[in-house]
């Protein structure tokens, strides 16, 4: 209010009330929610709610963030001890859909701790229930909220954690919101990344339902799929059936030029690859790039339509206006009005979701 109105008592008594009322906005009811989490202690600065300048660029560790380590450590302790609910990090609009990204206050390392399992599950469950209460149609699970198998022994796997969201669907059969883990679109993106001239691929890493679906689809297309270890070969052969398994084999060489890799793909395996090898990840997190003489693709992602509004930050390590397919899958389900879950062992139709994504303006990402 004007200072002289205050001094001479001439202000309208309702001014403060009117101002406060104008600031109040009813909570938006998003149509689609993508549920992610923090990754590293400094990742908070790369969110839109952190530092806008950093959020507008793909996530990389900056030297000057070490200067801020006291604040980073403090925020990490507060988040670790008092983080009890998810928070909104981004709001977007695509056509008639209102989109939101929520994050739960947990870091990557906490997902590998058995004693954190209940806390993480409770946060994810609370977010799903809140989304359901607010009338959200689809909730997609990002990063380790629906992670595949863990890399390290004696640590939580995604299947142990919540079976890619199936735990909550079974626990709350009355849910109207649909839980989507995006596995079918992950498979579709990888299949459409592989060159049409490819006749052989090597599958490496810790195997999940995405790996099984990829192996099955490739074998059905007449592409030879090789794996490095006999145990993995036996598991894959059992999962894809004897008919398609005729194109599945145990690798006797590392000279195969196209490698499809998931979490668990180790540095030793990467160093044995021949020069010019193409690494295509189908994992949530990108592999460490150790070879300057090889080509690395980004994690499964697509370029967003130009009609997507309020895109002022990057999703983790991806470029601006590029979105992970796990996030896109939820949006496509919302746009199409598909009233189905995709979690646990459930897989949506691969060709159908790929065609729908293209129809709504998403298009493939070129290699970097």
TrEMBL record:
Matching InterPro entries: CER1-like_C
Annotated membrane topology: Multi-pass membrane protein
One cellular component (GO) term of this entry: membrane
Compartmental location: Membrane
Very-long-chain aldehyde decarbonylase CER1-like C-terminal domain location: 201-364
Domain of life: Eukaryota
Protein name: Very-long-chain aldehyde decarbonylase CER1-like C-terminal domain-containing protein
């Amino acid at each position: 209010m004007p200072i002289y109105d205050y001094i001479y008592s001439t202000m309208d008594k309702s001014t403060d009330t009117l101002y406060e009322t104008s600031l109040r906005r009813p909570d938006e009811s998003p149509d689609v929610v993508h549920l992610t989490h923090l990754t590293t202690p400094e990742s908070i600065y790369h969110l839109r709610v952190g530092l806008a300048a950093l959020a507008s660029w793909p996530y990389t560790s900056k030297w000057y963030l070490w200067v801020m380590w006291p604040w980073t450590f403090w925020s990490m302790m507060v988040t670790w001890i008092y983080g009890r609910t998810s928070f909104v990090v981004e709001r977007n609009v695509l056509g008639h859909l209102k989109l939101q990204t929520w994050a739960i206050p947990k870091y990557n390392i906490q997902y590998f701790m058995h004693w954190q399992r209940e806390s993480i599950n409770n946060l994810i469950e609370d977010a799903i229930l809140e989304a359901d209460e607010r009338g959200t149609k689809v909730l997609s699970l990002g990063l380790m909220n629906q992670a595949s198998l863990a890399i390290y022994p004696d640590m939580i796997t995604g299947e142990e954690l919540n079976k890619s969201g199936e735990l909550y669907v079974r626990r709350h059969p009355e849910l109207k919101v649909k839980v989507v883990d995006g596995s079918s679109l992950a498979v579709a993106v990888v299949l459409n990344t592989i060159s049409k001239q490819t006749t052989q691929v090597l599958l490496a890493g810790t195997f999940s339902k995405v790996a099984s679906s990829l192996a099955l689809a490739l074998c059905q297309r007449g592409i030879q799929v090789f794996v490095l270890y006999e145990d993995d070969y036996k598991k894959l052969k059992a999962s894809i059936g004897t008919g398609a398994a005729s194109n599945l084999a145990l690798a006797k060489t590392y000279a195969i030029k196209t490698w499809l890799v998931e979490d668990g793909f180790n540095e030793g395996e990467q160093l044995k690859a021949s020069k010019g090898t193409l690494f295509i990840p189908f994992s949530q997190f990108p592999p460490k790039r150790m070879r300057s003489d090889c080509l690395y693709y980004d994690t499964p992602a697509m370029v967003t339509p130009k009609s997507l509004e309020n895109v002022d930050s990057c999703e983790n390590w991806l470029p601006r206006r590029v979105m992970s397919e796990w996030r896109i899958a939820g949006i496509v389900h919302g746009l199409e009005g598909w009233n189905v879950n995709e979690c646990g062992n459930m897989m949506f139709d691969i060709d159908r979701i790929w065609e729908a994504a293209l129809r709504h303006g998403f298009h493939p990402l070129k290699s970097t």
